[in-house]
Amino acid sequence: MKKLWAGAVALFGLILFISGCSQSTTKESDGKKVIKVAISDEVNPPFLYADEKNEPIGYDIDYMKEIEKKLSDYKFEYIWGEEESNLVGVDTGKYDFAINWFFKNPERQEKFLYSEHEFGYSLTSLITKTDRDDIKTLDDMVGKKFPPVSPSGGLRAILNAYNEQHSDNPLTLESMESPSNAENLKMVDKGKADAMFINVTTFNEIQKELNLDLKVGGVVSKEPIWTVYNKDNTELAKEMDKATVELIEDGTLSKLAEKWFGVDFFQDLEYINEEGFNFEK
Description:
This protein is an alpha+beta fold and 281 residues long. The chain has ten helices and ten strands.
């Protein structure tokens, strides 16, 4: 009887062991570790948006596909969500990291882990009437009129930094909570403002709808964009950072930039402005 009982216990233990192994395997894909990546449903073409099947596409996703080729032990699983909720999910460990045009700021750096190298750039620009050639840089906007600007955010931070460096001759800025990009562009189109400071990709998306008599007068800055990791994912961040550097050095990311933006934004601003870029994709 004792032998039977011992055998039953051993068999039960074996079943539990097999069951445990099976459960662990379901968390893997072809033996690869599944990494949960939060992507924003507040799409931002051509960095990130959805195709007709609601599958994510764009520069960010092509970048991730190249990363996945290099990190063969990982399988990236993408989950759509609202951006702030995504960041909460990264902080709590629900997601391993988030990707979507993230800038660095002190608050996020306290809460999240960043890799050492950016994987791309957001290009900020001055949008003017098509017949104007006198506005290409922020220096050209001294004494001229901007549409209302949000008192916070990355774009305002750039303008504030300019004014701090040029306190003797600053830009004139009018603040408004949550100004409309579309309405601000219409102000420029109607001549009620000289130029608007906005990301090139944001302008292009609005311009597709409004078709205003406007153009990119000049690209002002290249703002690095980053993936945002849970602080415990130091090893993943290091591996992805190493792969990112390789993709920059071998020209892969430059080709992706040209594919999605019409210009290699890893080059300097002089090259970007002189290249006669075509950002519309």
